[in-house]
UniProtKB/TrEMBL annotation:
Keyword Transmembrane helix tagged: yes
InterPro entries in the record: GT87, UCP010361
Compositionally biased region (Basic and acidic residues): 12-22, 489-499
TM region positions: 47-67, 149-169, 181-212, 218-245, 257-277, 314-336, 342-361, 382-402
Protein name (record): DUF2029 domain-containing protein
Cell membrane as UniProt keyword: yes
Biased composition range(s): Polar residues: 1-10
UniProt GO molecular function: hexosyltransferase activity
Source taxon at top rank: Bacteria
Family annotation (Pfam families): GT87
Family to which this protein belongs: Belongs to the glycosyltransferase 87 family.
Amino acid sequence: MPSADSTQASVHEADPVCPTRDDAVSRAGSELIGGPIGRRALLGASWWTPVRVVALVAIGMFALGMVQKLPCYDSGWFFGASSQYTHACYSDIPHLYQGRGFADGLVPYFDKLPGDMQYLEYPVLTGLFMEVAAWLTPGSGSLQHQAQWYWMVNAGMLMACAAVIVVCVSRTHARRPWDGLLVALAPAFALTATINWDLFAVALTAAAMLMWSRGRALAFGVLLGLATAAKLYPVFLLGPLFLLCWRAGTWRPFGRALAGAVVAWLAVNVPVMLFAFDGWSKFYTFSQERGVDFGSFWLVLAQKSSDPLTTDSVNTLATALVVLCFLGIAGLTLTAPRRPRFAQLAFLVVAAFIVTNKVYSPQYVLWLVPLAVLARPKWRDFLIWQACEVAYFLGIWLYLAYTTSGDAHKGLPTDGYQYAIGLHIAGTLYLCAVVVRDILMPERDVVRQAGDDDPSGGVLDGAPDKFVLGAAAHPPRHAAHVDGPQVEWGREEASDGPL
């Protein structure tokens, strides 16, 4: 006779969450394609499984994002400084093909670049990604022709990264595969995907989150270490994971994850560090030396001040501010009435880093999109945030059009751009506030309303707390980890909560 645990677990596995039934915005939007899914629908019974549908939608949206860059592909990147901004189709990729020596066959980190930059200012694994794309770019024809090919090659590689991201997000919460549509249909995701190479690090991070959700701590650590070798932000995920493992008393998986991350990062970085230290260190020195830049509230303060802060002062204040945010998240983690979900804390720490940083490039939104979907898979809140990010995407290009159009003053003046920055920050803080509310009031968490505990938490999913500050925590309510009446009570609570 099967146990209550195994029976209830099989119910969870066989009962996927359908957003057209549970989410008002998704239900209304589904009217365009025939309305909400029926109660007797056999999900996954055909080739058109949720993961495959989500992946195809993501590829289609990525292709639309490429089409949006068409005005620049034809001429804007090469013949007009302002047209690439008025058409909002700017990309770093074709500009850096020549500007960082790829057109001349220079080896990143080892060969000096002409001008003040001297060395490539990207982490090692991203530099390798850029170099592989250069190897695949035909070396014949004009420089413009080569740069166009370089962008196309990178776009193809980044499209593969986008597909990896949506598949990983769809599979991280096993009962919520359709949440991947939030990533696939995110307008800011499509608009910013080919501005820079950030999708590579985002794909590695999404794969790491999937591995952790499956209980594969070492694989998680290796992928996170590789992601950190491509971009700095993934390393911040180790902080909330440490706190969650502390609260649950699960130290061994965290140790394996940390070891895997350190070894993977060192394996990528040490060879370049040993033989080209000046080139390797450029990313870190550049990050410290660059002044206040686009998208940050520090830029607004500098533009409104008659005596702006020095770069050193901003570095110190920004570091202090993000540390305070991290301490606040740590306090929230250890005092929350129920242990927060890993994805919630991952989103909060990356959002804190983005909001307090001295620069916010428009493609940085890519860092947050998968984490936001896992943290708060609610269409209304997600679309509110996306609307703010799209407004900022348009705002920065119109502002650059204004500053490069001379006396014509085409575009958005400084005051308008400052409002766009404020809108981006307000949208991010709004989503953070909703996630914090879910942590403090777990009955409002849409993931837990469906009967799950922490589907992205791996070994943390349903584990009892061992260390909590303040009042005693609620017991875990994941159906696979509790018996009898507690399961039914948890399901009733889910059905009574807001949808």
